């Protein structure tokens, strides 16, 4: 194996968060500036490396790193277009969340532990995105579980421990399923590298039972993190974690890891053709559609802001699965681009929710009256995120829904279009009241539940809390407005899908 | 072969020397000197057995050494195979880790630990090398006696479990010896390689193998003959629990493997294989279940040994049932991964127990803050027991799964592995979750011992580091014998 | 039936008596005797088998001698352990065994 | 005919004493029966043409084990009235044992595969190579040369047993320090031994030592050898200890330790040097193997004797430093 910068770049991307993470474990609680420096150095380095790779991949360069691990199953890190999309998303949002978390945690206890595991989570997510074959993917998938767990139980209260137990029960169970699926596939066809169109087409007939079972096992495993029903219940529970965790991990890294895995399995392992031939996509489509509707309905019932957002995540993440399972180029673009768009919008919403609770102690929906007067900028970002979720142009969410709808038509699945429309109506039904309350209702007479101020505070809240949601809200608008350009999420998704469907 | 001989002779010489000097190890300095000596010895032993491993890996055939130069089965023979060399290396490694712990950890080891641990090392090394049924009996006895003496080191509280352990172990050895007598009666031979050629499938052979198997299963605490193990392992001093769990129970398993995969005719092996595999699954489930229910920390770790041995037995059973040499690597990877992980678990448990002043699991509330490194070691080692990638436990499970999954008619066995994984995840994470409790922290009694905690972490890191050599290990061990 | 076969059966009978005793008896001292009987049974089997050849098989006899010494060593240790324990129990006026048994160990 | 009567008598004695030793209502009777069992077993071995074993059994099996058992029984405060099985209750057990026994006998001794149909190859080999072994008696040849590795390990087993026992008496025991709780169990009662025994022992002990020495020397050509000799010496030591005529063997004395370790150490050194300088592990150099074996045997005998004596007679004083 030749070591050149193109083979080491994926490793650098991985290590740029892992090494700071491990170092932070050793940092004492009161060494704030050292910890912050480590964190930010990691972020900047990672963004730099990702930028390099983006540039390289767009020029057709190949970034591949391999290490022997198991017979016929090496560890491979491979930067291709699809993985880069996820990597870019995670890295950019890591930047925002790191700043947010520094502000949010303030002087709380055990910050070193928090930031260390946080960095490890990002490393696991990035590793999972860069994984070049199933075994590498599995490895990072499990590492992600392990690294997230301490963050879920970070508060150490009885309810967070309970959430942690539920989280582990689901994810370890899911991880085991995934492992069985991967092992089964390995025994049938070895572990080959992900390739557009899959590598199983020539054995689909001989081993149809085995391939089907492996697919079901893997979807069971991935479905846990992607929060497909009935494997979703851990997600709302896990909302007891601190806001940055909910924001980055449960809106982006963890759930997207599941969805991303489904994309990989359907497109790059089985291939569209083989999975259709084995009639695997149809059940997946039903499952995704059911999850979308179920999540929306449950979101409507929630009175707790973060719970509502969590159920909304359940619903929205399944758009990605829906797009994948519809098996058509347009739907695929919709699904893949939604991976990006949903991440931007949902993290905005979570940041805002965190701001509300950190600044004013607002947790419940009834308490949101008049928030727009007290915190106009945060509320504006929240509104952008909410409208984007509903699918109002020109915000990014519109683009993904448009492509999904067009994809449903292209695949002759009218009912899927119907599902998207109904779900959008439900989205509106559970987001618009919040926006309405925030802008048009009067502030409560008795004041806010628990208002807090920071020394030297110049804005409506601490600047480190305010900046990230504004940044991500801006990004979600930009992603919508400049959707036509090559470097927008949409342009990149078209680039990916063109390869997959060999257009 | 000469390298292997050095790794046997060194600990035995050390035993005699320590015995002769008989310096009372009371002061810190004396501990350092004794510990330092043992560390040097184990390092040399480790390097020579490593050389032996390289030697064994390089040769295509098994090398024998007829002791005293007598051929034709008259004398005992030593045998060096990759598995043997690997076990030699592994034994020296674990002994080295524990010697480091005993020397540098504040909680250390009892004063008589050193010579006994060298006894254990020497007898294990002799056992791995031996290719003679009766000589195996002698080494087994040597091993059991040193194990019991080590358990008794914990003081009067451990004497009852130690006595029970000793009696059962003696009875088990005698069952084994009875079997050996019958084998000699039938074939007139004791040398394993020579028996392989002549042995055939008849009632006496079956009876002999059955007796030996029963004895060995009792010694290895294979379910359902495991009842002595939790008490003995839990009451022993920390370092001793680690030795017992990582090494001692593996020795009878090794003999069992030799018997069934090399001595017994394949027809019989194929018949007993599914039984072993089934017992293995039952061990996984019931052992894991007991581990989930016990309120005591070290008992939990001890029961997890019972459960984890189920994997090894399952691998052995399937190896026999299908006569697939690849299963060898699953078996020995399990043994090594479990040994390393268990060393870490026991050391970490000992650290937490001493620091937090309780033997109960409930005392671990808040351990992520009070004894962070020990708890981290516990979780990391636990991850290997569960089989999370890319730990050593995962490697083993992967190798075991491959042949199971490739044939649809074997899929039911996978359920057993699945169950085992979930149960072990349940008992490890039950404890880990508790350690994150910040609401009801159990305050430590004494300041924690950082060196000891870090030393507890070392084997856990090693077991995850096995991933780096995964492919080589699997190939080396997969060759059979 | 020659005498070898006869003593082989006797040996097995002694072994079984010992095994049975080990399983049914509670008293540790008796269990030590039981284990010793098992050993005696096995040695009898070895020696009975040795009579098959003329002169008797020296290998088997040597095995029996070795086994006997191993047995006495183990028995001595076992008996010392058992009696040490009994003595300790008699003197357990002080509740200590010097080990971890703090108030925290009481079930909550 | 006479042989048959002898065989049956021995068998009946063996079995009934074995059963009685386990199930006697009073433990001390059980121990007595066990010692008697040992003596009958020694006779049986003599009958089966195994004089080596008969010697070893008489000294080790019956004598030393008996002393150990009585020593342990003394620790028990009152002879425990363990639940005694009535004959009727024993019936199922006895039937079960008989059934299994029958099964085992059928498997081992009947049919074409019966063990008595086989001729083991090793005895011929021993006979063929005994000339090169340096020893004339076949059992000793096997023990000291052909299977010397077993014997070496066995010395380590003895050493280990002693070590295990020793650490049961850790230094500075609280009880003996404070001196308040001394009882019969802690310190052997220094009763005056039975006078005739005192008188006899004066004669017997030297005789036993002589016998031991003879057995050792004799072992190379006829039944006898290191273990038997060592065991008899240990028995002598035990008896002398009983009449308090022996200076206490103390662990803390370095000559005692040296004696104990000597056998194992010498044997191991021989093994290592033969592997390093000679032809291989325990491969004795051809001329001089006789001398080497005899040296090992002498040292081993002393080691065994001291080890066994300390194992059997040593009390806490002997082990503390």
Describe the structure.
The complex is a heterotetramer of chains A (503), B (481), C (108) and D (321). Chain A is mostly helical and 503 residues long. Chain A has helices spanning 5-25, 32-58, 81-105, 111-130, 134-152, 158-189, 208-226, 234-237, 243-277, 281-301, 305-325, 329-360, 371-374, 376-390, 396-410, 414-440, 463-481, 489-500, and strands at 63-70, 73-79. A two-stranded antiparallel sheet of chain A has the order 1-2. In chain B, helix 5 (133-152) runs antiparallel to helix 6 (159-187), helix 13 (297-322) runs antiparallel to helix 14 (326-356) and helix 14 packs antiparallel against helix 17. Chain B has helices spanning 2-21, 28-58, 82-104, 113-129, 133-152, 159-187, 192-198, 203-219, 228-235, 238-248, 250-263, 266-293, 297-322, 326-356, 367-370, 372-386, 392-406, 411-435, 450-465, 470-477, and strands spanning 63-66, 77-80. Chain B has a domain at 265-481. A two-stranded antiparallel ribbon of chain B has the order 1-2. Chain B has 481 residues and is mainly alpha-helical. Chain B is globular, with a radius of gyration of 21 Å. With 108 residues, chain C is mainly α. Chain C has one domain: Helix Hairpins. In chain C, 72% of the residues lie in helices and 0% in strands. Chain C has 3 helices and no strands. Chain C has helices spanning 3-24, 28-50, 58-90. Chain C is elongated. With 321 residues, chain D is an all-alpha fold. Chain D folds into 2 domains: 1-112, no CATH class; 138-321, no CATH class. In chain D, 71% of the residues lie in helices and 0% in strands. Chain D is built from 13 helices and no strands. Chain D is globular. The termini of chain D are far apart. The chains are: A mainly alpha (503), B mainly alpha (481), C mainly alpha (108), D mainly alpha (321). Chains in contact: A-B, B-C, B-D, C-D. Chains C and D meet through helix 1, helix 2 and helix 3 of C and helix 1, helix 2, helix 3, helix 4 and helix 5 of D.
Largest beta-sheet details of chain A = 2 strands, antiparallel
What strand line-up does the widest sheet of chain A have?
A: 1-2
Q: Spell out the helices and strands of chain D N to C.
A: HHHHHHHHHHHHH
- The helix/strand order of chain A is HHEEHHHHHHHHHHHHHHHH
Fraction in beta strands of chain D: under 5%
Global Rg of chain A: 21 Å
Count of discrete alpha- or pi-helical segments spanning 4 or more residues of chain D: 13
Terminal CA distance of chain A: 33 Å
Overall geometric form of chain A? globular
> Runs of chain A with pLDDT <50, length 5+?
none
Name the beta content range of chain A. Answer: under 5%
How many beta-strand runs of chain D?
Answer: 0
Measured on Cα atoms, how large is the radius of gyration of chain D? 23 Å
**What share of the residues of chain D lie within helices?**
over 70%
Q: Structural class given helices, strands, pairing of chain D?
A: mainly alpha
Distance between the termini of chain D: 60 Å
Shape of chain D: globular
The beta-strand count of chain A equals 2
The overall pLDDT of chain A, averaged over residues, is 86
How would a crystallographer describe the biggest sheet of chain D? Answer: none
Number of H/I helices of chain A: 18
């Amino acid at each position: 194996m030749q070591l050149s910068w193109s083979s080491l770049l994926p490793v650098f991307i991985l290590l740029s968060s892992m090494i700071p993470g491990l170092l932070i474990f050793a940092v004492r609680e009161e060494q704030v500036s050292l910890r912050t420096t480590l964190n930010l150095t990691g972020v900047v380095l990672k963004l730099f490396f990702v930028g390099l790779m983006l540039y390289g991949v767009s020029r057709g360069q190949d970034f591949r790193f391999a290490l022997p691990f198991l017979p016929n199953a090496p560890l491979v890190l491979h930067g291709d277009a699809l993985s880069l999309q996820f990597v870019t998303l995670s890295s950019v949002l890591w930047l925002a969340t790191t700043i947010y978390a520094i502000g949010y945690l303030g002087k709380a206890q055990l910050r070193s532990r928090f930031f260390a595991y946080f960095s490890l989570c990002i490393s696991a997510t990035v590793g999972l995105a860069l994984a070049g074959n199933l075994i590498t993917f599995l490895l990072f998938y499990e590492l992600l579980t392990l690294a997230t767990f301490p963050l879920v139980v970070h508060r150490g209260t009885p309810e967070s421990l309970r959430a942690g137990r539920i989280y582990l029960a689901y994810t370890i169970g899911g991880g085991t399923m995934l492992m069985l699926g991967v092992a089964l596939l390995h025994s049938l066809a070895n572990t080959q590298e992900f390739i557009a169109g899959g590598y199983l087409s020539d054995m689909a007939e001989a081993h149809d039972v085995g391939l089907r079972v492996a697919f079901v096992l893997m979807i069971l495993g991935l479905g846990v993190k992607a929060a497909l029903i009935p494997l979703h219940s851990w997600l709302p529970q896990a909302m007891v974690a601190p806001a940055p965790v909910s924001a980055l991990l449960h809106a982006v890294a963890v759930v997207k890891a599941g969805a991303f895995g489904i994309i990989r399995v359907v497109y790059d392992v089985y291939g569209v053709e083989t999975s259709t031939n084995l009639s695997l996509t149809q059940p997946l489509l039903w499952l995704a559609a059911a999850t979308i509707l179920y999540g929306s309905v449950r979101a409507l019932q929630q009175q707790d802001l973060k719970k509502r957002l969590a159920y909304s995540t359940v619903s929205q993440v399944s758009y990605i699965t829906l797009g994948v399972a519809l098996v058509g180029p347009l739907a695929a673009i919709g699904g893949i681009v939604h991976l990006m768009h949903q991440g931007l919008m949902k993290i905005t919403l979570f940041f805002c929710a965190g701001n509300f609770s950190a600044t004013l102690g607002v947790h419940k929906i009834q308490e949101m009256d008049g928030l727009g007067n007290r915190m106009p900028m945060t509320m504006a970002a929240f509104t952008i995120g909410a409208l984007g979720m509903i699918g109002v142009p020109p915000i990014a969410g519109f683009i993904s829904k448009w492509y999904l709808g067009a994809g449903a038509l292209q695949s002759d699945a009218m009912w899927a279009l119907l599902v998207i429309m109904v779900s959008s109506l439900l989205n509106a039904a559970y987001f618009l009241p919040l926006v309405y309350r925030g802008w048009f209702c009067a502030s409560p007479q008795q004041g806010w539940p628990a208002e807090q101020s920071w020394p030297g505070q110049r804005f409506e809240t601490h600047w480190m809390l305010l900046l990230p949601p504004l940044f991500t809200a801006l990004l979600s608008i930009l992603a919508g407005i400049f959707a036509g350009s090559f470097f927008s999420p949409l342009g990149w998704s078209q680039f990916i899908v063109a390869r997959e469907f060999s257009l | 072969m000469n390298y292997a001989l050095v790794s046997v002779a060194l600990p035995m010489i050390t035993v005699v020397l320590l015995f002769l000097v008989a310096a009372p190890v009371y002061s810190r300095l004396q501990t350092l000197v004794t510990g330092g000596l043992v560390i040097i010895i184990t390092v040399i032993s480790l390097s020579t057995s490593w050389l032996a491993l390289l030697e064994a890996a390089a040769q295509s055939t098994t090398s024998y050494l007829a002791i005293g130069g007598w051929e034709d089965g008259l004398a005992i023979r030593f045998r060096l195979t990759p598995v043997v060399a690997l076990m030699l290396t592994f034994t020296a490694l674990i002994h080295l880790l524990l010697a480091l712990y005993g020397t540098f950890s504040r909680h250390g080891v009892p004063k008589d630990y050193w010579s006994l641990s060298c006894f254990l090392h020497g007898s294990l090394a002799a056992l791995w090398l031996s290719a003679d049924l009766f000589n195996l009996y002698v080494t087994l006895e040597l091993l059991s006696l040193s194990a019991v003496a080590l358990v008794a080191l914990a003081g009067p509280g451990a004497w009852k479990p130690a006595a029970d352990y000793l009696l059962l172990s003696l009875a088990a050895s005698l069952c084994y010896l009875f079997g050996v007598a019958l084998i000699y009666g039938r074939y007139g031979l004791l040398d394993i390689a020579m028996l392989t050629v002549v042995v055939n499938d008849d009632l006496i052979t079956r009876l002999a193998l059955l007796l030996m198997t029963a004895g060995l299963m009792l010694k290895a605490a294979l379910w359902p003959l495991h009842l002595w193990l939790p008490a003995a392992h839990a009451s022993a001093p920390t370092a001793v629990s680690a030795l017992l769990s990582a090494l001692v129970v593996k020795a009878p398993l090794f003999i069992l493997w030799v018997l069934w995969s090399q001595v017994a005719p394949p027809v019989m092996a194929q018949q007993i294989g599914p039984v072993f595999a089934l017992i293995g699954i039952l061990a996984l489930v019931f052992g894991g279940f007991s581990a989930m229910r016990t309120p005591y920390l070290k008992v939990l770790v001890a029961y997890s040994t019972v459960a984890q041995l189920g994997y090894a037995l399952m691998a052995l059973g399937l190896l026999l049932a299908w006569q697939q040499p690849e299963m060898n690597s699953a078996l020995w990877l399990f043994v090594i991964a479990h040994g390393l992980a268990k060393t870490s678990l026991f050391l970490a448990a000992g650290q937490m127990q001493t620091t937090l002043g309780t033997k109960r699991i409930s005392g671990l509330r808040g351990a992520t803050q009070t004894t962070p490194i020990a708890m981290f070691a516990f979780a990391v080692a636990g991850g290997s027991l569960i089989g999370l990638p890319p730990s050593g436990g995962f490697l083993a499970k992967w190798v075991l799964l491959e042949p199971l999954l490739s044939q649809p008619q074997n899929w039911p066995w996978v359920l057993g592995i699945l169950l085992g994984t979930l149960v072990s995840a349940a008992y490890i994470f039950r404890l880990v979750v508790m350690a994150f409790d910040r609401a009801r922290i159990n305050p430590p009694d004494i300041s924690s011992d950082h060196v000891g905690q870090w030393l507890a972490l070392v084997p856990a890191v090693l077991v995850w580091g096995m991933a780096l050599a995964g492919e080589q290990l699997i190939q080396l061990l997969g060759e059979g014998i | 039936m020659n005498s070898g076969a006869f003593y082989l059966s006797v040996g097995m009978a002694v072994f079984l008596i010992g095994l049975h005793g080990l399983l049914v008896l509670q008293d540790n001292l008796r269990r030590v005797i039981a284990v010793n009987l098992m050993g005696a049974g096995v040695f009898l089997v070895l020696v009975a088998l040795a009579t098959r050849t003329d002169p008797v098989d020296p290998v088997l006899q040597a095995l029996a001698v070795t086994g006997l010494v191993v047995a006495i060593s183990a028995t001595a240790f076992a008996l010392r352990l058992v009696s040490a324990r009994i003595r300790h129990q008699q003197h357990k006026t002080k509740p200590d065994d010097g080990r971890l048994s703090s108030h925290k160990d009481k079930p909550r | 005919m006479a042989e048959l009567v002898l065989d049956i008598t021995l068998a009946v004695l063996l079995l009934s004493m074995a059963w009685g030793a386990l199930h006697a209502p009073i433990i001390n009777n059980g121990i007595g029966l066990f010692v008697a069992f040992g003596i009958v077993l020694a006779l049986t071995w003599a009958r089966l043409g195994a004089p080596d074993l008969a010697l070893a059994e008489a000294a080790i099996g019956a004598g030393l084990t008996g002393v150990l058992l009585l020593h342990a029984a003394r620790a028990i405060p009152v002879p425990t009235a363990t639940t005694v099985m009535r004959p009727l209750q024993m019936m199922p057990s006895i039937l079960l044992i008989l059934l299994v026994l029958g099964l085992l006998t059928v498997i081992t001794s009947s049919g074409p595969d019966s063990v008595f149909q086989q001729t083991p190859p090793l005895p011929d080999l021993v006979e063929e190579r005994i000339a090169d072994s340096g020893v004339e008696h076949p059992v000793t040849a096997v023990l000291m040369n052909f299977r010397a590795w077993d014997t070496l390990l066995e010395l380590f087993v003895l050493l280990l047993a002693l070590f295990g026992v020793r650490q049961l008496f850790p230094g500075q025991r609280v009880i003996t320090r404070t001196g308040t709780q001394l009882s019969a169990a802690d310190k052997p009662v220094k009763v005056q031994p039975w006078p005739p025994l005192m008188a006899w022992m004066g004669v017997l002990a030297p005789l036993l030592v002589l016998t031991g020495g003879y057995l050792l020397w004799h072992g190379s050509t006829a039944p006898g050898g290191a273990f038997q000799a060592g065991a008899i010496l240990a028995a002598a030591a035990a008896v002398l200890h009983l009449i308090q005529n022996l200076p206490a063997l103390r662990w803390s004395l370095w000559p005692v330790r040296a004696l104990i370790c000597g056998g194992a150490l010498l044997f191991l050194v021989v093994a290592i040097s033969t592997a390093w300088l000679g032809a291989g592990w325990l491969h004795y150099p051809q001329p001089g193997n006789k001398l080497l074996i005899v040296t090992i045997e002498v040292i081993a005998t002393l080691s065994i004797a001291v080890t066994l004596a300390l194992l059997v007679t040593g009390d806490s004083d002997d082990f503390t430093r």
